[in-house]
Automatic annotation (TrEMBL):
The keyword Oxidoreductase applies. InterPro entries: 4Fe4S_Fe-S-bd (IPR017896), 4Fe4S_Fe_S_CS (IPR017900), QueG (IPR004453), QueG_DUF1730 (IPR013542). This is Epoxyqueuosine reductase. Pathway: tRNA modification; tRNA-queuosine biosynthesis. It is found in: Cytoplasm. Keywords: 4Fe-4S, Cobalamin, Cobalt, Cytoplasm, Iron, Iron-sulfur, Metal-binding, Oxidoreductase, Queuosine biosynthesis, tRNA processing. Its main location: cytoplasm. It holds the Pfam family Fer4_16.
Amino acid sequence: MRLSPPQPSPASGRGSEVTRVQRCHAQHGKSPLPLAGKGWEGAKRRLSSPRRGSPPMSAPARKTAPLSPSDLKDQLRALALEEGFDAFGIADPDAVGDAGTRLRHWVAEERYGDMGWMAETLDRRVHARAMWPEALRVVMLGMNYGPDEDPRTVLAERSLGAISVYARGEDYHDIIKPKLKRLARALLALAGTGDVKVFVDTAPLMEKPLAMAAGLGWQGKHTNLVSRARGSWLFLGAIATTLDLPVDAPMGDHCGQCRACLDACPTAAFPAPYQIDARRCVSYLTIEHKGPIPRDLRPLMGNRIYGCDDCLAACPWNKFAELGREAKLAARDENRAPDLADLATLDDAAFRARFPKSPIKRVGRGRFLRNVLTAIGNSGDPALVASARAHLGDPDALVRGAAVWALSRLLPAAEFATLAAVQAGAEADAEVAAEWTAALEADAPPRT
């Protein structure tokens, strides 16, 4: 049964959406910008430069009467809205339920693939206070990056590449972290005491369970956060603090009997609801995985060349999603549906120039070309044979191996065998040589 979600209630009392502060101030006749005025301007001038030294940041002495914890929270929420965040909530660091137990099971099953740091940092990740025992609260913030089109549309255009929505604009880490630092410094200035640390997907912190505890949403069956107001399109950031701020009520699960996200996965990466096997996930395979993509999964990937949005886009709660308002996160036109033939021509310098300020740049040209050539192999387009053949002599063995597989999918069997007779014997890399052998031995798809 497909879930038919109700319209979020403005009086839900969750305290997780920053727009609630506007309603609160309107009800009580207050300005929607409670920090406007000379006092706040002075605080901004004093904090115009980041404090030097190792984190955590510490508060400057406050010369006026201290604010109550509730007032601190309200003013921080208002500032978060000004910074462009769309969801706000506060949680106790330990309020993550059985998330730690589930993570231990996931690691024990070795479903993390190449992401060895998940096992190495397990104990710190399970116990949020292990990184910073003095932390009393975690301020969780969400930034909407809702797309202006259905990202699945490009999947039907097999000669074009599909890039995940989050990677079509600038790297969200570089956008969100400065905003978090400004908010953290403002919190210290307002409180006149305390310490803070900020996190954007770069530390062993369970952001999604903490966001659920803070009332921002819940972890859906696809294991990602779902918001009643934003659907599946939220970036998360966190500010840990020693300040004892009021916590928000956790958000309950609203997935019901729906399994749209599970059924949408092209590689069957969900062994059960609320469980993911990263080793089968297209996002993992195209971004985190360093070696050749497993042969049995390559045909299932279609033209997805960086990440995958299928499970996110399938969520019915997206009916309430809105277009993201941070311009730097908006899709660049050249990243909406790039031509695979054009991408296949990129050398290292051209790759870096093609994706400035982009998260795509971090995977490097080799892994990216591996993805592009896999998509070329799935395209069924004979016009792309030349693009694949050009990489049989590529200096990167990962790229050469992907080119072999692509050609085995595009060329008639006899022509591929003739090419292998010339090229395979000269291949010095064992993995690439194995690609030639496997392609010749495999039951090839119908060729014309």
